[in-house]
Amino acid sequence: MNTSLIILAAGMGTRMNSDLPKVLHQIAGDPMLVHAMAAGATLEPQHTIVVAGHGAAKVTAAAQEFDENATVVVQSEQLGTAHAVDQAKDALAGFDGIAFVLYGDTPFVSPETLEEMLGAAEGADVVVLGFEAADPGRYGRLIMEGPSLERIVEFKDATEQERAVTLCNSGVIACKSDLLFDLIAGVNNDNASGEYYLTDIIGLARARGLKATAVTCAEAETLGVNSRAQLAEAEAAFQARARAGLMENGITLQAPETVFLARDTIIGRDAFIEPNVFFGPGVTVESGAHIRAFSHLEGCHVARGAVVGPYARLRPGAELQENTRVGNFCEIKNAVVAEGAKVNHLSYIGDAFIGAAANIGAGTITCNYDGVMKHHTHIGARAFIGSNTMLVAPVHVGDGAMTGSGSVITSDVEEDALALTRAPQVEKPGMARKLFEMLKAKKAKQQRGS
Ligand code: UD1
Ligand code: CA
After folding, report:
1. Are both 278 and 358 inside the same structural domain?
2. Is the pTM of this model over 0.90?
3. Are residues 211 and 269 in the same domain?
4. Is 255 found in the same domain as 199?
5. Which of 32, 194, 316, 323 is deepest in the core (most CB within 10 A)?
């Protein structure tokens, strides 16, 4: 069955008290909107339409960064959820299949739930996602007659009896695309809010003798974010689920509550994660890697057998091959550390290739930036870079070469060569003792005088 997504993301989110549109506030390193798009993407939709309004330019950029084929339509005035969905009508003209309405501020609807709705859409004209609410509050209520969904009543418009219903509307709907827009054409704004309610399409469908039904999910999936406090709750809920998921998949988290994961973090079985590790977006850690305490990783790949940290920072483009070591206070950015190479202490490696089994001495820096442009450093296999070497890029150090500690390397070093740029050592016998005596005498004289 063909599907398309309509993701509502026009609201201002007044209670966020923010210049940023609500749907761009992040959970686990990605905007909420991206979480909703990613869940919907598992349906392999033909079209993804994002309905933007407040902050449309920023919303467009975020939507298209995640999915360059996403179409953004602008709802310039927020007249209600039916009006919002109707903005996608032209973009979906000619589309023959099921349209899913999702919400940019409801990030946790699961792919499994969407699949279940798609299944239900084979036997019903309109499928609504409902949930049993612990506190039904101001949610719309699903009015069922057996398996048939008769209508949805908004809290503001509900009678006492209807408010007693605990089966609530998540807002997510699946409906044949042309039927959806046909039903929306019949929606008016004659209600307590003066808005065009998408929820009204259920009553309209039933009046035509069409079938409507509800699929239910856990309330945790329908969690919506309206305030910073709810954003923090959503983050906590995401982290708790993601940590539990990793442990189920055979990853050790020594102190799970101190490890922070991104939406797309991938970690292989038998990896070992020590306390206080932060994963930003785009990280893959292979089986058996060991991430030690207080490390910060984003946009990087760590292969099996690698040991990272404690206190390591892996930035985007860091590629640690098998059995590598990146130790304390080392920063790696846009660099390959080839098999078995070691960068163990106090180093910056950026825009570089570190050859297999090379050893990078403490305090080594690739000077990659000349103030205007970035340049590349190549270190050959088995090279030994002495402590406190400055590698002024672009520069190439051959296989098996060595640099003397404290050297500033500005020219290429050929393989197996030793490069030294230090001033030669001078030794003056007895001079240290004479100097100390002179200085002590000076201090004593000063103290007598004062
Ligand atoms: C809506 C449902 C309600 C459901 C609840 C779940 C309707 C009429 N009511 O109520 O039954 O229980 O969601 O959270 O649909 N939006 C737009 N453009 C608009 C209006 C809304 O893009 O013109 C977006 C909002 O940014 C938001 C979403 O649609 O992301 C829901 O709108 P909101 O006004 O919050 O609806 P609720 O009153 O919460
Ligand atoms: Ca809402």
Report:
1. yes
2. yes
3. no
4. no
5. 32
